[in-house]
Amino acid sequence: MWIQYALFSSFLWAIVHILDEHCVDRIFSKPWLGVITSSGISAGIFLLVPFLNIPIIIPQWDVLLICLFTGAIIQLSQVYYFRALESSDSSTVSADWNLTPTFLPVISYWLFGYLITGNNYIGIGLLLMASIGLYAIDKFESKWDTLYLMSIAASIQTGVVLLEKYVFDRSDFFGAFLSITFGAFMTGLFSLGLRKVRVSLVKDLPKIKTALPIFIIIELINWAALYTGQSAVKLGIPSLVSAIVVRRRASFEASIPAFAFGISLVLAMLTHKVDAETKRKLPVKWAMVGLMMIGVWLIGMGVET
Q1: From CA 241, how far away is CA 232, in angstroms rounded?
Q2: The pTM is what?
């Protein structure tokens, strides 16, 4: 069941990546303002949660503190993510999240005793090869800057996934999910205490108000992606979940580049913006997507504990 949650969340995060890229390119004067707008909208959504009439069991204090810390470092990773989007496109940035699955298998074995099968390793390898292939065939001057920023973000996210697995195994899922989300958006809002942040926000406020419906849509999709992605973490093995799911605010995905590429291609075709160079690269890109599909299938074949 976890793999269905992981794939659905990766599809949702691919949409979020594309919308984030639009906001960084067209709305924000500073890319990290995406953290602030995301936090503000999330706070509003959080206030509506009690109306869902779902029982909320808050974790014990020790686990609650870990949840809040997890949310805080999620936002830290997002600063690097939004900076990377400033100089790259959504497909490339989402491919760079795939650095995470290279760290998790060994750490998962040390901490949780999970033994990943040979097929699982082959699947992870295919996903990484395909995402690197999608990354390599595009040429832009800031490629290595993007890789540097996303390496930091992916390293932070490695810790996020392991912390999530820890708290979900020791508390009620919905209560822990809300606690992590609370820690994330409160960290973003606390940054308003910095004068530089306030000045940049006020400068962009007219454009942000105009684009408010876009930000609301992004966060609603993001919340759905967070819930399904964290459900996958709870039910699955961290290193395998990370190979499929690399999210915008808290986990990881090797399948996101495929979704992001597919959605971007459809949008480009609908708006008649597919140039000759893009058409020339399409067969190679679709081959990389095919490798990703094989990788996902191998990852879903099972794991030993």
Answers
A1: 7
A2: 0.73
